[in-house]
Amino acid sequence: MLKIHHLGHSQSERIVWLCEELGVPYELEKYTRDAVTRLSPPELKALHPLGAAPLIEVDGVLLAESAAIVEFILARYGHGRLQYGLNHPEFASYLYWFHFANGNLQPVMGRSMIVGRCGLAPDDPVQTSVQVRLDKVLALIEERLTQNDYLAGSEFTAADIMSVFSLTTMRLFHPVDLKPYPSILAYLQRIGGRSAYQQAMAKGDPDLTPMLA
């Protein structure tokens, strides 16, 4: 059986959610962040040199990196679900938004969080440049979701599973006001209505109320 090593309040929520969407049986091993550093506990560091989460184990294979894990699970258990094939008209859009999550959205959220903790003045050039980039990224998502119910098009896909963490749980670490983005907020309400998302969050992070507004 697939085993998920899940760090609470982290990107590994993606993997629990994906398995719930696909109906893939899994064993869930949960870990809690250090109360002071907010980093992974020693138990996770014993499994992976970077103390990375998520991690999965299946058939003697240990795999890290959430995007790689999502692709692995889709290839092994998806049977074409939650992804678009080469001949689908939105195939390129699916690939773009799947990789946008870790290629643009999550990095700019992380940079904004780090720079915000440096105590720079609001008009500092570094602070300004990071904020401008974050605004552009959120505006691009807003535009896409104004035109489509989901990031890859009209259907929910793994591209959404990859992106939602940054728009929700990541805001525990770095608050971002989404009120200027009504289409993103409407999208998060659609996500929050999915039973698989509700089940995943209840199992993986029962202490957390999903930040859907």
Notes on the structure:
This protein has 213 residues and is α+β, with helices and mostly antiparallel strands. The protein has two domains: 2-82 and 198-204, Glutaredoxin (3-Layer(aba) Sandwich), CATH 3.40.30; 91-194, Glutathione S-transferase Yfyf (Class Pi), Chain A, domain 2 (Up-down Bundle), CATH 1.20.1050.10. The protein has eight helices and four strands. The protein has helices at 13-22, 42-45, 66-78, 91-116, 125-147, 158-167, 182-192, 195-204; strands at residues 2-7, 26-31, 55-58, 61-64. A four-stranded mixed β-sheet has the order 2-1-3-4, covered by helices on one side. β3 and β4 (61-64) form a beta hairpin. α4 (91-116) packs antiparallel against α5. It is globular, with a radius of gyration of 17 Å. The mean pLDDT is 95.
Which helices and strands occur, and which strands form pairs?
Elements lengths: L1 E6 L5 H10 L3 E6 L10 H4 L9 E4 L2 E4 L1 H13 L12 H26 L8 H23 L10 H10 L14 H11 L2 H10 L9
Parallel strand pairs: 1-2
Antiparallel strand pairs: 1-3, 3-4
CATH topology of the largest domain: Glutathione S-transferase Yfyf (Class Pi), Chain A, domain 2
H/E element sequence: EHEHEEHHHHHH
Q: How many strands, what sense, and barrel or not for the largest sheet?
A: 4 strands, mixed
Contiguous low-pLDDT stretches (5 residues minimum) are none
- Structural class by secondary-structure content: alpha+beta
Beta-sheet strand percentage? 5-15%
How large, in whole angstroms, is the Cα Rg?
Answer: 17 Å
What spatial order of strands do you see in the largest sheet? 2-1-3-4
What is the count of β-strands? 4
Taking the alpha carbons of the first and last residues, their distance comes to 35 Å
Number of domains: 2
Assembly of the depicted chains: single chain
Q: Overall mean pLDDT score?
A: 95
Q: How many helices in DSSP terms?
A: 8
CATH class of the largest domain: Mainly Alpha
CATH architecture of the largest domain: Up-down Bundle
Portion in helices? 40-55%
